[in-house]
Amino acid sequence: MRKGVTPEYWDEACRHLVKRDRVMRKLIPQFGEARLQSRGDAFTTLARSIVGQQISVKAAQSVWDRFAALLPGPSTRISPAQVLDLPLEALRAAGLSARKVEYLRDLASHFASGAVHVRQWSSMDDEQIIEELVAIRGIGRWTAEMFLIFHLMRPNVLPLDDLGLLRGISLNYFSGEPVSRAEAREVGEAWAPFRSVATWYIWRSLDPLPVEY
User: Fold this and answer.
1) What residues make up the domain containing 132?
2) For residue 174, how far is the Cα from the chain centroid?
3) In this structure, are 119 and 179 located in the same domain?
4) pLDDT tens profile 103-154
5) Is 40 helix (H, G, I), strand (E, B) or coil?
6) What residues are paired with 5 via a beta bridge?
7) Per-residue model confidence as pLDDT tens digits over 10-67
8) Is 102 in the same domain as 193?
9) Whole-prediction pTM value?
10) Which of 100, 93, 1 is closest to 49 using CA atoms?
11) Domain-embedded: residue 3
């Protein structure tokens, strides 16, 4: 996917949400022309998500830069074959834990063998894609849902395991009272078929910097 692609449905989604939801009516105008943008290719995006697990954004970028420096070509696009060719010691020396090295190799194997059907994703529904992705070690449902929202730009994903979404729903809809997943799902029903877009604005209400993945 080209750098900085914005979903075609965004403006239609905003009009729909402003009509259907009182909180969205207030939130959406606050962020003007800001939009979700997709960057990079599928394999690189997932590799970055594995590298960044359980460490700060700054630390993740530092490890990624060292990892990418081991490979020929730009760090914005790496290939499964390149990762599989790297010696274990080189990956560990870049600052990757033994577990993350395993995860990256498993990701590369899935892509190299065709076990993930990247070319068919456009005709597959969200749950089918999630099922393919969670079969890869180190990728859980949350990571798969972030990938659907930020990379494939699917319009109707509601990531109920996302703490930011639950916190944002609590603050914007329940005066800061804790919310259950069931309550969050109920709020999200009014957002369909653009739950990804509403989720993005909920995240923005917590952090005015654009969310990128």
Assistant:
1) 42-141
2) 26
3) no
4) 999 999 999 999 999 999 999 999 999 999 999 999 999 999 999 998 999 9
5) coil
6) 38
7) 999 999 999 999 999 999 999 878 888 777 789 999 999 999 888 887 888 999 999 9
8) no
9) 0.87
10) 100
11) no
The 10 Å Cβ neighbour count of residue 55 is: 15
Structure tokens at 183: 């309550």
- The DSSP output letter for 5 is B
Residue with tokens 């993945």: 213
For the chain, the domain total comes to: 2
In a domain, 212, yes or no: no
Residue type, 131: E
Q: What CATH number does the domain containing 73 carry?
A: 1.10.340.30
Nearest alpha-carbon partner for 74 in 65, 84, 86, 62? 65
28 and 93 assigned to the same domain: no
Q: How crowded is residue 2: how many other Cβ atoms within 10 Å of its Cβ? A: 8
Of 121, 123, 91, give the one whose Cα is nearest residue 108. 91
Is 202 contained in some domain?
Answer: yes
Q: What is the pLDDT of residue 50?
A: 93
- Do 69 and 131 lie in a common domain? yes
